[in-house]
């Protein structure tokens, strides 16, 4: 980021939420970079930016899509980069129909489920003109468990014979599809949907285009302000399309920085803690789809595809060998049968509903506080009352450990302590300064933390806890002849202990790194994932981390100061994969291997030495020369051409259009959030049809747009975090010096909204949604800007989410903002939509006891809310068959022509 000429921070309050990383933004600004903050609130990030652009939460795709349209219509795209390095020239199946043809839907929609058969999204075949490969998610299990499982290499795709038109004139080239798709995403539409003025849009468009190209680069940065939306994955896809068009991917000061902060957030998806992934973003197998090892391998990759994901079999076999050692053999398919199988989506919120339905006996809570920190807090607490047992590991007696005696539902009478049968166990945990190991944050950087002090009393690290739990379970099962116990008994659970009798965390890192198991190098740690083999001769617990323990050295602990090394600081920590600091950095040079400019030189081809060299570890086969054309019959890394920089993609190109892998559309499309005060101005389809919904009486949604009762919840609210508090408050509300800095739950409102609703600064207000009502102190501030949307003012309310009630020993308490939220999930990632919902606000404190429930119910009655509200997949009257599609497209073309004539007249 320090090398950027322009930085757009959108979906993040980086200065407050990532203050350490923000130093690089400050450094870029000191070098002359332009900093723009796009956010519904004016924050400390806004205060040090060159420009703050207020935006309505949930409308970012409309803004980014309009920037794409601006780049295309004004011929500002980086032509040489786009033609060589993206799939712009690739031709898509002629049966494909776009959202422009189908009123906001894509071809392949199942109207009943909202699932897509993505066959028509595929590339056209070179011989027949038909698709190269299809992808149908016909079952609930595959459709709802498939999202976000292609993080490392993209979905399997045989694109070796895909048709291309280098002139970009074929109407079914990705480039032409892209132009049509975003043609109506105009500055006027941005003002209508986002509330952003034409002047602010022009400023933003000018800043990013003037700071992109051969000699300059623009960087985007986002955090959960983008990911925690019902279409969050598509937010990031839209930014990726824009950055590819501008030539900002794989280059210093470019790219899209996913800001990942506390508690190894990036590491938790790498290793991972997600239900649908294995370490290194290998998919978790599903019942009925991946019953055999061959089924699994053929589903996750093909040997015909380009790039290093073509070696996914080696990564998988090495993982199985790391876990089951000698018990994993070629004869038993490397113990593949030991892996669990998915029967559908088993994420946090699916587990929650299963708990409420009495299908879950026990639950572990580690480093989380769902009673406060998760959407629909009442559902979270009620679900825990259905458990037989609950284990909470934390530093303090957080609300998730004490809801049974002093939670909000005790006060309302919905729960009675004496009736709750859940047995709750609280186990004290070690803090981050009381344990050693790696943390992986923004920039994919593994950094080693040394233990500063021993944990007090019975406090344990996660490593110690799970190691001891594993030992006890294995002891219980010792001698068992039951086949279902073999996976646990055969685990390689032989970690060496240190002088304190605890597991040596470096031994775990070494296991993750991997080693040679046979041959002359037997026992030697692997130096790179390219050394992994599918024949069982190597192991490794996470292929993308291979190299962090090369030569038996803990490279995560590297600590050479930046002033003593190269600009990329390769000797500070270790970045996956292969210690590369910029992914896909082959794109920092032109197709001939020369830097796009001397100012932005980073990686280049050394003709004399016959290798790639530069400031970073080349993200490319080191000896693969520019101009090389591979044998069309080969696959994997050997199939890469000398100008295929995106080495993990199945065709070696950056995807402007996603023929596979996304469950809700090959191109990002603006939909309104689950709850919105306005109608979708771009399409008849109001909401993302593929979103995951839970239409239950305990998860009601407010009416939207012009639906009856929408005016009962007229305002938008969004949640955020503060510098002074940490997530759900477990590490901050128990500390007097942090609690003193932010002692009370509050809500930010504009002076205009305060005047409209009679709210007074410093006094109480009650905020009501269909799920709950909470109280907060009023902060009247011009940092909240009313926006003109759809011809009327739309007010937004800001709510920090750190407070909760009921935790034992907390210095400060307050109502939890997340109680207001319903649960709707992104189809691809299963992440909740927690940044945009609707509510009402009124002066005064909320009622107590049963009267609180009565207030919430009174609002529901007035709005006519029931379990079906907002649950429809398709908006009424949408065309979904071919005839209707052609008629719709003809009507759209006629309207576009009229709009064009009107524009000329103006």
What report would you give on this structure?
The chain has 906 residues and is an alpha/beta fold. The strands form 9 sheets. The protein has a 6-stranded mixed beta sheet with strand order 20-22-21-27-19-25. A 5-stranded parallel beta sheet has the order 3-2-1-4-5. Helix 15 (348-356) crosses helix 17. The two termini are 41 Å apart. The model is unreliable at 134-144 and 882-906 (pLDDT under 50). Keywords: 4Fe-4S, Iron, Iron-sulfur, Metal-binding, Oxidoreductase. InterPro entries: Asp_de-COase-like_dom_sf, Formate_DH_Act, MoPterin_dinucl-bd_dom, Mopterin_OxRdtase.
Brief summary:
With 906 residues, the chain is of the alpha/beta class. Helices cover 26% and strands 12% of the residues.
Number of helices: 26
Per DSSP E runs of 2 or more residues, the count of β-strands stands at 27
| 3D shape | globular
Kindly estimate the percentage of residues that lie in beta strands according to DSSP: 5-15%
**Main pleated sheet:** 6 strands, mixed
What's the overall average pLDDT, rounded? Answer: 92
Measured distance between first and last alpha carbons: 41 Å
Computed over alpha carbons, the radius of gyration is: 27 Å
Flag low-confidence runs. Answer: 134-144, 882-906
Strand order of the largest sheet: 20-22-21-27-19-25
Indicate the structural class: alpha/beta
Helicity level, as a percent range? 25-40%
Domain Molybdopterin dinucleotide-binding: 715-834
Protein name: Formate dehydrogenase subunit alpha
Family: Belongs to the prokaryotic molybdopterin-containing oxidoreductase family.
Domain Molybdopterin oxidoreductase: 2-389
């Amino acid at each position: 980021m320090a090398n950027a000429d322009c930085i757009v921070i959108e979906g993040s309050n980086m200065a407050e939420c990532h203050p350490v990383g923000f130093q690089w933004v400050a450094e870029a600004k000191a070098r002359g970079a332009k900093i723009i903050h796009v956010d519904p609130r004016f924050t400390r990030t806004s205060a040090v930016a060159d420009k703050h652009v207020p935006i309505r939460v949930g409308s970012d795709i409309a803004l980014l899509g309009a920037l794409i349209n601006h780049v295309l219509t004004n011929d500002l795209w980086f032509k040489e980069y786009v033609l060589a390095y993206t799939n712009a020239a690739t031709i898509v199946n002629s049966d494909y129909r776009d959202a422009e043809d189908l009123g906001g839907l894509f071809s392949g929609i199942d109207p009943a489920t909202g699932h897509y058969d993505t066959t028509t999204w595929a590339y056209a075949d070179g011989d027949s003109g038909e698709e190269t490969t299809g992808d149908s998610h016909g079952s609930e299990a595959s459709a709802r468990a498939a999202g976000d499982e292609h993080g490392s290499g993209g979905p399997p795709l045989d694109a070796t014979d895909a048709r291309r038109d280098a002139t970009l004139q074929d109407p079914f080239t990705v480039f032409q599809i892209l132009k049509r798709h975003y043609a109506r995403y105009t500055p006027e539409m941005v003002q209508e949907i986002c509330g952003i003025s034409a002047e602010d849009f022009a400023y933003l468009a000018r800043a990013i285009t003037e700071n992109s190209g051969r000699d300059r680069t623009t960087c985007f940065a986002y955090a959960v302000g983008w990911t925690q939306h019902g279409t969050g994955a598509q937010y990031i896809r839209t930014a990726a399309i824009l950055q590819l068009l501008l030539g900002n991917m794989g280059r210093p000061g470019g790219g899209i920085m996913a800001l990942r902060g506390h508690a190894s957030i990036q590491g938790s998806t790498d290793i991972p803690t997600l239900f649908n992934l294995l370490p290194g973003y290998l998919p978790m197998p599903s019942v009925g789809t991946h019953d055999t090892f061959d089924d699994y391998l053929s589903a996750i990759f093909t040997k015909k595809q380009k790039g290093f994901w073509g070696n996914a079999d080696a990564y998988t076999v090495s993982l199985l060998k790391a876990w089951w050692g000698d018990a994993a053999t070629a004869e038993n398919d490397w113990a593949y049968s030991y892996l669990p199988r998915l029967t559908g989506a088993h994420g946090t919120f699916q587990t929650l509903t299963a708990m409420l339905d009495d299908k879950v006996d026990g639950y572990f809570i580690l480093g989380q506080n769902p009673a406060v920190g998760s959407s629909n807090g009442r559902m979270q607490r009620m679900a825990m009352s259905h458990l037989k047992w609950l284990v909470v590991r934390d530093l303090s007696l957080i609300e998730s450990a004490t809801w049974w005696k002093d939670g909000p539902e005790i006060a309302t009478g919905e729960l009675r302590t004496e009736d709750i049968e859940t047995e709750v166990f609280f186990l004290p945990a070690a803090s981050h300064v009381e344990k050693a190991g790696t943390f992986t944050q923004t920039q994919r950087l593994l950094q080693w933390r040394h233990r500063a002090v021993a944990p007090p009393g019975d406090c344990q690290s996660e490593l110690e806890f799970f190691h001891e739990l594993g030992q006890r379970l294995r002891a219980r099962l010792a001698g068992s002849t039951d086949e279902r116990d073999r996976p646990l008994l055969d685990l390689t659970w032989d970690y060496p202990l240190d002088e304190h009798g605890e597991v040596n965390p470096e031994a775990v890192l070494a296991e993750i790194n991997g080693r040679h198991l046979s041959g002359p190098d037997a026992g030697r740690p692997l130096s790179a994932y390219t050394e992994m083999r599918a024949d069982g001769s190597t192991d490794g617990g996470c292929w993308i981390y291979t190299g962090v323990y090369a030569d038996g050295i803990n490279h995560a602990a590297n600590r050479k100061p930046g002033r003593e090394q190269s600009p990329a600081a390769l000797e500070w920590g270790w970045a996956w994969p292969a210690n590369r600091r910029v992914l896909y950095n082959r794109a920092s040079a032109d197709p001939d291997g020369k830097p796009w400019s001397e100012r932005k030189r980073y990686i280049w081809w050394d003709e004399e030495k016959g290798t790639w060299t530069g400031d970073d570890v080349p993200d490319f086969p080191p000896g693969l020369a520019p101009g090389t054309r591979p044998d069309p019959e080969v696959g994997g890394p050997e199939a890469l051409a000398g100008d295929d920089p995106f080495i993990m993609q199945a065709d070696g190109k950056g995807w402007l259009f996603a023929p596979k892998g996304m469950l809700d559309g090959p191109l990002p499309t603006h939909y309104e959030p689950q709850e919105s005060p306005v109608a979708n101005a771009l399409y008849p389809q109001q909401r993302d049809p593929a979103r995951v919904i839970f239409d239950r009486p305990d998860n009601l949604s407010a009416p939207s747009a012009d639906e009856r009762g929408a005016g009962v919840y007229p305002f938008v609210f969004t949640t955020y975090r503060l510098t002074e508090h940490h997530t759900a408050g477990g590490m901050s509300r128990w500390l007097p010096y942090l609690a003193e800095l932010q002692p009370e739950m509050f809500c930010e409102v504009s002076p205009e909204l305060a005047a409209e609703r009679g709210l007074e600064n410093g006094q109480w207000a009650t905020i009501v949604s269909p799920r709950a009502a909470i109280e907060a102190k009023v902060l009247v501030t011009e940092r909240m800007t009313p926006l003109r949307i759809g011809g009327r003012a739309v007010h937004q309310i800001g709510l920090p989410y750190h407070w909760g009630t009921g935790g034992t020993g907390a210095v400060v308490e307050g109502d939890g903002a997340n109680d207001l939220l319903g649960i709707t999930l992104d189809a691809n990632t299963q992440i909740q939509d927690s940044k945009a919902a609707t509510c009402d606000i009124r002066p005064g404190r909320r009622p107590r006891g049963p009267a609180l429930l009565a207030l919430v119910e009174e609002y529901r009655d007035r709005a006519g809310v029931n379990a079906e509200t907002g649950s429809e997949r398709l908006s009424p009257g949408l065309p979904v068959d071919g005839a209707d599609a052609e008629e719709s497209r003809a009507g759209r073309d006629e309207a576009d022509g009229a709009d064009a004539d009107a524009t000329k007249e103006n």
